[in-house]
Amino acid sequence: MPQAGRRQVGWWRDASREQRRTARFAAVSAVAGLALATGAVTAAGPWDGGQRKAERDLAAAGARPGGARHADGERAPGAAPPVLASLKNAGKRPADHLAEALDPLLKDSALGSDHAAAVVDATTGERLYGVAQSDAYTPASTIKLATAAAALSAVGPEHRIETTVMASGGDGVVLVGGGDPTLTAAGLGDLADATARALKSRGTGRVKVAYDVSRYSGPVLHTIGLNDNIAPVSPLMVNEGRLDDSDHGPADRTAEPAADAARKFAALLREKGVDVDGEPGEGRADGKAAARLASVASAPVSALVERMLTNSDNDIAEALARQTALASGKPASFEGAAQAVTERLAALGLPMPAVRVVDGSGLDRADRASAEFLALLLARAAEPGRPALRPVLTGLPVAGFSGTLRDRYPRDAAGRAAVRAKTGTLTGVNTLAGTVVTPEGRLLAFAFLASGTTDADAAQKALDRTASALAGT
């Protein structure tokens, strides 16, 4: 395989290594593949372990209260006092403090004609603050929090999505898509290598290649159509159908992700010395008579959830919604996935009257959620008895440091590093839902939803100021 074909892209190079490690002959026990699963969801909270703690420590070192200084030696400007500080002596309820701090900020004209808010104590589940908190709003990409919770509940954090190659008939091989949009060119190369070795061991040197996309059903195009924000939804694709080497963000997409993946696979087989007849076509393996030749697995669902939330990845979101459908006995379509996700959320005991799930990504304006629903969902993910949901928290972008919050929250902002939140943006819609640690160590879950906004940048800054008020300094 040419070196260029093995280029690993950005954040996901670790996944490529996972795929190379999990490519294997069918004769290898499935237990070996499961042994690669990591214990990524054992942390007791959103700041425990690994890179996330490092991000917090870095922020604390650079912007510690009363100690942060600019290069010119001046102390960083002070921010509003913590809204929950000294509650024992203040003689006021937490709700009163929050109302005093948040009410004026939510009246900012940048937040448009309509807004809702909810703040919940993530430890106790106590509702501390609400404005129109039970009303239905367009959540935009904050609906990905719901997709994440549903997928983790349905398949578990250690589940991996397999792409397989099956022998079909005397001279056929079928590339079967399992629903992994993160399959890389390197992973596909490893799959071709394992397949070539399996064919050689069977004495087969010439094959016909087909591809199987029967795992999904229904329309392949999102309602927004072919778009640089999302590829056609297929169980078989390479690098989310991107036509460049990017690993997240808008990019030109192929209109035929499965066919393109199969053509690349056939070319790789030829490079491995296998003669391939003609061009790949859509087909299926011969049922029980088909033999598995090779497979490659995705990173664990816990890692997929984190990547989806950090980068607001629409392709992973739709894939996870369909994994939820498959685990729930529903058709892996937009409609079936929406039904399955809704049922899983209801089973978590969340308030559902204002919730309408239409897709997994939040690109559809018909999605609905309440601020209360989103805040309580985050609180559920923090419960000690629900460790499987912890990636919902650990995947949240860190204010000023990662993902869709990397370029928000300037260095002197009170919420920098303390706020972790999923963003949501559509024309006229801006949302933010996440967690914040108060100066006294209290973990709050919040959701702010705004409709009728006219300046996305101004609306985002208004939401960031509101979340920062929860953090203080």
From TrEMBL:
One of its GO terms (molecular function) is serine-type D-Ala-D-Ala carboxypeptidase activity. It comes from the Bacteria. InterPro entries: Beta-lactam/transpept-like, Peptidase_S13. Its EC number is 3.4.16.4. Coiled coil: none annotated. It is an enzyme of class 3 (hydrolase). GO terms for biological process: peptidoglycan metabolic process; proteolysis. Keywords: Carboxypeptidase, Hydrolase, Protease. Residues 59-68 have a biased composition (Low complexity). Residues 43-82 are annotated as: Disordered. Belongs to the peptidase S13 family. This is D-alanyl-D-alanine carboxypeptidase/D-alanyl-D-alanine-endopeptidase. It comes from Streptomyces luteoverticillatus. The gene is dacB.
